[in-house]
Amino acid sequence: MDLPAPSLKTGAPGDALHPETLAIAHGYDPHACFGAAKPPLIPTSTFVYRSAQHARDAHAAFFGGSGPAPGDEAGYIYARLDHPNLGMVQRRLAALDGAEDAAAFASGMAAVSAILLAFARPGDAVLQTRPMYGGVDWLLGTQLAEFGIRAVPIEDALSEASAAAAAEAATRQGPVALIMAETPANPTAGIADIAMLARTADVIGRHQGRRPLLVVDNTFLGPFLQAPLRFGADLCLTSLTKYAGGHSDLLAGGVSGSAALVGVLKRLRTMLGSPLDAHGCWLLLRSFETMALRTERACANAERIATFLREHPKVAGVTYLGFLPEGSAGRAVYARQCGGAGSTFSFTLQAGDGGGETEAFRLLDALRVLRLAVSLGGTETLICHPASTTHYPVPRERREAMGIQDGTLRVSVGLEHADDLVRDLARALEAV
C-alpha cells in the first residue's frame, strides 16, 4: 500500500512517524494513567471538582475554547462536553488524517448531521456527488429540503465542466455552502477528483464572496489509502464504524480538519448531545492499532474476489477500483489520489427472467461463508442488496441513474481465507 505521508514529527529534523506507528499509541500518555500500557476505559458521566473555584475555572476553559489539556485529569466537567477517552481518539484520528484537530461522534450520520447543521442555512445550496450513502442522500433530499436547503448533484465528479455546470445551477438557487463528496462512492465505487472539487470551491468563492467548504467522505478507503485533506478538502468525514472500528462492534463517526472548523463542530456536538461515548472510544483505540494490517489483508482478498467475479459469465460488471481502464480520467485520478483500491465494491448480475432482483436474492440465500448484512469494513465479509437495503429510501429512478440496479450487490471483503470466499461465491452463483 502507498500510505499517506507521515503526519507527526517528533522534534528532530527529518524524524517523522509513519501512520502505522501513530495508530498504535499517539494521543495517549501511559504516565498520565498509572503507567498502563493500554488506554484505560473511563466510563464516568461526570467529574468531581476540587473546589468551587476549580469548577468555575473548568467551565471558563471549556466554553472559552481551550478545554482540558492532554493528561489534565482535573479539567473535565461532564462526558457530553468532553472526556478522556474522547480526547485520545480525537488526537489519534487527527494525526492519521494529517489534520490539526478531529471530532468524534456517536455515529457517522451524527457527524454528517453536525456538518450540515453547522455550515448550511435555509436558502443555501449544497453540491453533492452521486451516488452517495443512502442515509446522506435521504437527509439532503428530504429533511434538509424541508428546511429550505437545496441539494444539487454533480453528474460527473471527474469533469471540471460538469462540476462548473452544477455550481452554476446551484448558485441560481442560493449561495453554495458546501460541496459534499463521497469517494469512492457507496456502493458503486465511483471516484471523485478531490483536487478538482477544491478548485471548483475556489471559483464559487470568488463568484459569491464566500467559499463553500469541501467535505470528503473517506469511509471506503480510510487514512491508510487516501488523504483528502492533502488534496484540498476542508473536512475529512469518516464513518469510524467501518474500517477504523473494523470488528462490527461499535458505532462512531469522525471529522478531521482545521482547529477552527472542527471547533465549530465540537461546540455544536455539545448542544446536540452526540459525542462518542467512553466505551466506543476505548474500542476504537484498540482497533486503530491493527487498522493498517487489516487494510492490507482485506485489499489483497478483495483483488482476488473481484478478479473471480469479473471472469464469471453470470456477472455483468464489477466496480472494483483496480479495474479502472488505463488511460481513463478515473484511472488518472485513482493513481494520483489513492494508495489502493480498497476492499468494498459492487457487482451486477446478468439480468434474467427475474429482472435482477430474483437472481440477486437467490445468490444471497445460497451463501454460507459470506454474511448477508449491511455495513462494511469488518473482519468478516459482508454482502447486501443495495436497492432493497442501504439505498431503499432512494427513489428507483435516481438509484438506477446512479448505477444501482436490481441485480447489483455490494460486497465488503474481510479477512477470511480468499479460497473459501471464492468457493462460497462460486457455489452461490450456481443457484442464480
Quick structural gist:
With 432 residues, the chain is α/β, with parallel strands linked by helices.
Q: What features would you highlight for this structure?
A:
432 residues, alpha/beta, Aspartate Aminotransferase, domain 2, 2 domains, seven-stranded mixed sheet, five-stranded mixed sheet, 14 strands, globular
User: What is the 3D form?
Assistant: globular
Reported for the largest beta sheet, the result is: 7 strands, mixed
| CATH architecture annotation name of the largest domain | 3-Layer(aba) Sandwich
Q: Quick one: how many beta strands?
A: 14
Number of domains: 2
CATH class of the largest domain: Alpha Beta
Estimated radius of gyration: 22 Å
Query: Based on the structure, what is the oligomeric state of the protein chains?
Result: single chain
Structure description:
By secondary structure, the chain is α/β, with parallel strands linked by helices. It folds into 2 domains: 84-288, 3-Layer(aba) Sandwich (Aspartate Aminotransferase, domain 2); 294-429, Aspartate Aminotransferase, domain 1, CATH 3.90.1150.10. It is 39% helix and 14% strand. It has helices at residues 19-25, 52-63, 84-97, 108-119, 134-146, 160-171, 194-208, 259-272, 278-288, 291-310, 329-337, 357-366, 396-402, 418-429, and strands at residues 8-9, 16-17, 101-105, 125-129, 150-154, 176-182, 213-217, 235-238, 253-257, 315-318, 344-349, 371-372, 382-384, 408-412. The strands form 3 sheets. It has a 7-stranded mixed β-sheet with strand order 3-9-8-7-6-4-5, with helices on both faces. A 5-stranded mixed β-sheet has the order 10-11-14-13-12, covered by helices on one side. A two-stranded antiparallel ribbon has the order 1-2. The longest helix has 20 residues, at 291-310. The two termini are 35 Å apart.
